Amino acid sequence: MKEIEQYVKEVTLDLPDDEQKELREEIFIHLQDHVKELLIKGYSEEKAVRLAIESFGNQGKLNRELKRAVFPFYKPIRFVWCVIFVTGFLCLVSYSAMEYYHPEFDNSLPLYSVLMGMLIVTLIAGTAEVLYEVLASQIKSKWLLNPWLFFLVPSLLFGGIQTPLLFKHPEQYQDSLWLDLYAVPIGAFAYIISRQLFTLLFVRNKNNFKRTIN
Fold first, then answer.
1. Contact, 71 vs 20, CB < 8 A?
2. Mean pLDDT, 10 residues at a time, over the chain (214 residues)?
3. Where are the beta strands (DSSP E) in the chain?
4. The pTM is what?
């Protein structure tokens, strides 16, 4: 029954502890009963388990539906959190780099630069999230939907394409300006970390999450 245990784990992944435990028990019992019925009908155990799981539905889709039921505003709140986190992280990187190269200057970031950066992060991240959701509804392969693969790999490719500019026009990327070429992969890395932090800090503890949105 390891297949059933793994399936149930994926269906209830990242749900609050109390709901997760209850749902795991309910789904596991339901699948076990279905398997027993199929065994009585003459199916092999392997086929009975496979048919029972298939009748229950795709684990990724069920997991998303359960999250929407438990947290109606899960994705919008996570997106806002990620945009703020990434914007703050990029501002910190920019400020630290300027302090390193030019500590004699006042390197504080003007408000309009921060807001413009937030707008750019929102547009890029929003587009990526929409594409991710489209693919998630069409593709069953879990490794293709891994956030690290989906968000980070394209950004690294983009950064790699930008790298030759650093050698062709080194005079344009003096001091901390070379970081501009890698803003996308740096931001993508921060975005994935912020997604994971959101789950760790808020989603896995229902009480903390409720206090956050109330």
1. no
2. 85 77 88 91 89 85 78 85 96 92 88 94 95 80 79 93 90 86 94 90 54 40
3. none
4. 0.69
Give me the residue label for tokens 């999230």.
129
CA distance linking residue 79 with residue 58, whole number of Å: 25
Distance CA 150, CA 141 (A): 12
Contact 52, 29 (CB under 8 A): no
Write the DSSP symbol of residue 109: P
Handedness of CA 56, 58, 60, 65 (dihedral sign): negative
Chain Cα centroid distance, residue 72: 17
| Residue 13 burial (10 A CB sphere; 0-12, 13-18, 19+) | middle
Report yes or no: 157 and 52 within 8 Å, Cβ to Cβ. no
Amino acid in the structure at residue 185: P
